[in-house]
Specification:
This protein is mainly α. It contains four helices and no strands. The radius of gyration is 17 Å and the shape is flat.
Length: 115
């Protein structure tokens, strides 16, 4: 995606989050709370889009950190779309471990490239 397209995508995702936030509030009652995905899926999409926007402008030095958070945000989107609440904690820790390993690899690789 080009820079302008990334910014438009991020703004649309922010609007989706706003709509999901309002919709969740309208649909939720004390007796019957609304499905949590109405709030968290647009929220996860918004976080992904904003991180993607930052990742596009990352310097060589900060790129591994943006990559780390980009993949964490992708994991969050997948988690809220596919998993039920009971499997979320297990998948969170497993995915976090994989992304941390990837970050360490990227940091070592970037460290060797600059020396």
């Amino acid at each position: 995606m080009k820079f302008k397209q990334t910014q438009i995508f991020a703004l649309i995702c922010c609007l989706c989050f706003l709509a999901g936030n309002i919709l969740y509030d309208w649909l939720s009652t004390d007796d019957a709370p609304a499905d949590y995905r109405i709030f968290y899926v647009p929220f996860s999409l918004m976080v992904f889009a904003l991180i993607l926007n930052g990742y596009k402008h990352a310097t060589k030095k900060t790129e591994p950190y943006w990559w780390f958070f980009l993949w964490l945000s992708i994991g969050q989107m997948i988690k809220f779309l596919l998993f039920n609440p009971y499997l979320q904690m297990i998948s969170d820790y497993l995915f976090l471990a994989l992304v941390v390993i990837g970050l360490i690899y990227k940091l070592i690789r970037n460290g060797r490239a600059t020396t």
